[in-house]
Amino acid sequence: MKVLSLLPSATEIVFAIGAQDSLCGVSCDCDYPQAVASKPVVSAKVLPITAATPPAEIDQLVRDQLQVSDSIYSLDRELIQELRPDLILAQDLCRVCAVPSGDVEEALDYIGCSAEVLSLDPHSLEDVLEGILAVGRAVGVGGRAEAVVSELQVRLDRVRNATADASTRRVVSLEWQDPPFNGGHWVPEMIELAGGTDLLGAPGERSRTVTWAEIEAVAPDVIIYMPCGYDLAGAVEQSSALLEVEEFARTPAALNGDVFVTDSSAYFSRSGPRLIDGVEILAGILHPDRFTPPEPTKAVRLRGGTVQSLLP
């Protein structure tokens, strides 16, 4: 079977269940694990976004594009026709994160390809785990997928047990800063499992724009900065602007040095196996006396404009 993945989390799933040899192509955003670099790339972003593009400009570019199109991506239809995949892994959850399934099916009709399209659209961690099982069944390695899910569930249970009777931390998660967005979908659930209360989000609900006044009003003890699509280095670079926002600077989290910056692209934005790493990272941030704090390659503390490791 030949599998085409148009979703970074789906690519990670394929590797996690040991089916990487079936991958015939991937999206332009698929960058993990490192071995994915050898796979043909069948999509491209249509927006002029670089690492230096400010968050507010990115937000406006995306909004403008979605006024005229269902996606910010283009597909290499000729390459897809040449690859002739049997199965395409796509999504309809977010038009910003990957090519929508509807666009994929339209492209397949255009090029005369009869591949099956499996859309992965989770809103919870349970949905994510079920997606791993679904991919495993689709590519014929259901047993391997079940083993992966079983191990991930053990790790979730370990966090749940470690934080079950801990004092709850009051948390705001920020997945964008200009304008501010709270983390949605599985993120509030991740925070709850790690021993926190998400003050602006609810499990399974979409991310939404909030105001700095709202953030100040809920008085979070902890703020987790997880800008969507950024690795840790990029998130740290963006985080300096947070301290310039007066309402942000007045929150208990900022005043007490409990603002944390994470590698969102790896552990929070993508609905794949590494979300379980994200739960463990949150547990180590919120309850370092009960769970090992994350390594400085995964999350750091932002205190007074200085980045600090969470490990002793």
Q: Structural class per helix/strand content?
A: alpha/beta
Q: How large, in whole angstroms, is the Cα Rg? A: 20 Å
Order of helices and strands: EHEEHEHEHEHHEEHEEHEHHHEHHEE
> How helical, in percent, are the residues?
25-40%
DSSP summary: helix tally: 13
Cα distance spanning the termini? 48 Å
Fold-level CATH name of the largest domain: Rossmann fold
Contiguous uncertain segments of 5+ residues: 94-98
Query: Approximately how much beta-strand content do the residues carry?
Result: 15-25%
The CATH superfamily of the largest domain bears the name: Nitrogenase molybdenum iron protein domain
Query: What value does the average pLDDT take?
Result: 88
Oligomer description: single chain
CATH class of the largest domain: Alpha Beta
Outline, from the CA principal axes?
globular
Major β-sheet profile: 8 strands, mixed
The beta-strand count equals 14
Gross CATH architecture of the largest domain: 3-Layer(aba) Sandwich
Please tell me about this protein's structure.
The chain is α/β, with parallel strands linked by helices. It has 2 domains: 3-146, Rossmann fold (3-Layer(aba) Sandwich), CATH 3.40.50; 169-307, Nitrogenase molybdenum iron protein domain (Rossmann fold, 3-Layer(aba) Sandwich). The chain is built from 13 helices and 14 strands. Mean pLDDT is 88; it is low at 94-98.
